[in-house]
Amino acid sequence: MTEKIKEEFPVLQQDVYGKPLIYLDNAATTQKPISVLNAVDNYYRCLNSNVHRGVHRLSILATEAYEHARMSIQQFINAPNAHEIVFTRGTTESINLVANGFANTILKQNDEVIVSTMEHHSNIVPWQLAVEKCGAKLKVISINEIGEIDMECYQNLFSEKTKIVAVTHVSNVLGTINPIKKMIEIAHAHQVPILIDGAQGIKSTKVDVQDLDCDFYCFSGHKIYAPMGIGVLYGKEKYLEQLPPYQGGGEMIQNVSFEKTTFNSLPFKFEAGTPNVGGAIGLEAAIDFMLKIGRENLLTHDKALLDYAQTKMQEIDEIRFIGQAREKAAVVSFLLGTAHPADVGTLLDTMGIAVRTGHHCAEPLMNRYQISGTVRASFAIYNTKTEIDKLVEALKKTNRILS
Ligand code: 7TS
Q1: CB-based contact 382:368 (threshold 8 Å)
Q2: Is the CB of residue 323 less than 8 Å from the CB of residue 176?
Q3: Judging by DSSP bridges, how do beta strands 231-235 and 137-141 pair with one another?
Q4: Residues 6+ apart with CB under 8 A from 311
Q5: Which of the listed residues 80, 219, 241, 312 has the most CB atoms within 10 Å of its CB?
Q6: Does the Cβ of 28 fall within 6 Å of ligand 1?
Q7: How much is the pLDDT for 1?
């Protein structure tokens, strides 16, 4: 099945340095299937027009397609209402929108925001900016050695000053799938809203925001086979209503005068300016692609590759895995003896294998493990066990070269 699926990805049909490309950097971004490329291409060839304001045919069709994409996303994550789906540039912008809104309305001096040690910088820095602006504080949940959230620490961090929790669904470095349903329950038991950074979780789990009962869920299209520059903020209506606009401009207003401006209804209040219509249509096509394969099949494939990789990679001398949580996504971070991750990554590259190295935008997590970075291989639907065999062979060779 996988070989057939791989044929749908033009970018994977190439050699690098004369070797067939093995793309294992999927936690950074996934490749795009032809159906997504065609959907975007078709939009610009046949429909391109600005949305929501035109009376002409193309504008009406583009608006319909854009709003249709919003409804497909609503269904995909089982959100109660389409107006709770806000289009953004990606996870980073979604989190900034919420953090900024909290800084401007809810957070006060000495208030507290809870995040975890394993957050991507995108779920740290926006909150740091927010708390600094308000004289509030960040509280950090610790993790154990295998890379799981310390739930006791989490429970103990709550106080009357806690105004929001912001945690990642899945760690981009450790692969840990956090027990977010339980974490959401705990936050709600303290009457505290919770934002889930779903940048990795959207690919690695079947997300149902009503079942989870999260207050905000953020993700990027490009990590689920869609184009870059389009993402989603799901928010419960009661919070989105409460938050102020993030940016001012066209589309997000009802009436403007120099004395007073009134804002548009949800979700348009948060979608200032011309949106990424082609991106939204591409995201809808990516969702169709995933649904055609089947969510369960995607997850089973991820799990099979993860299990295979984690077993097979134990053959490699001096390998040290960073992140061995019991619930894991298809992400393997590791070190080879004392070799610098960048050296390992560069040698793999010469063998046609694309991995990521470095701190993966999670410096506090690197500090937790007292390392400067890792090598990370992360898998998607087009990857195969044969590719993992080649990775293992390449790592053995790398060991020989570097020792
Ligand atoms: N949160 C997590 C958990 C992520 O993995 C990433 C991107 C982001 C937020 C930010 O997403 P963006 O689409 O807004 O940039 N992670 C990675 C990565 O691991 N390597 O490159 C990007």
Answers
A1: no
A2: yes
A3: unpaired
A4: none
A5: 219
A6: yes
A7: 65
